[in-house]
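User: Can you write out an input/output pair for a complex, sequences first and structure second?

Assistant: Here is one pair. Inputs:
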Amino acid sequence: MKARITSRAIAAALIFFAGYAALFIAPDEATMHQIQRIFYFHLGCWMAMFTALSIALVANVAWLVTRKPKWDWLGVSAVEVGVVTCTAGLATGVLWGKPAWGIWWAWDARLTTAFILWLLYISYLLLRGLVEEPQRGATLSAVFGIFAFLDAPLVYAANRLWPRGQHPAPVIFGGPNSGLDPTMSKVLVICLVAMLFIAIIALVDRYRLERLRHEFDELRVAADARDAGSESALIASSAKDSI
Amino acid sequence: MKDFHFLFAAWIAVWAIFFAYEISVASRISRLRAEIERLKQQIR
């Protein structure tokens, strides 16, 4: 309980500090001015998403190899956090696109691959819900999750592979004459740390939920078995009485 | 400040999405805990 309160207090402090740094410490960008500050939350969301989906990939592979339930729990938890961060990334992108490009959305390579990624992982979550047998559902969704992850590197590399889209050329690791102003880099690091920390808190909570769900399923099976046992004992005794 | 409302909306959107998700997970956890307690009572 103490650890949970401490982690929430750290998260609140990070949210406040990241917001202050992005809105007041980071310098204005030359062409987009104030609106470029969305970049700090926008990139943070995508980095948190890539981290969550990478964890999901490892968990999906580990489940298929070991069949230990904890990997399945981690897999579905990481995918759900990945979908949430992807949703936040798409939302901030749309809110940045309108003032920066004059349009809310464009079907350029990066936006399209990101949207497909979002749909793929929504499908992963729906697929789990559709299969009744838990082991089979876990295996099917793990295989589907590995397949879905193939789109993640494409999202990252989209504006390098297909540079004629709405998105600009890469600013970070974009080769000569690319890069960020040193103050912008520091603010970006603060925002990335804040986003990753919050995504990890969400992942830990979601994993706890999955573990409880497993406990609930086991108890329900035990309760059903107990009910069935007392029912058959009742039938046996009434049969005996009738003889 | 030009386009400040977009900046503000993006800031709110990020934290609203995270906050809503955290609330949804917390409520699912508390519902499951209650169900687990009920089942434990039933088994005893």
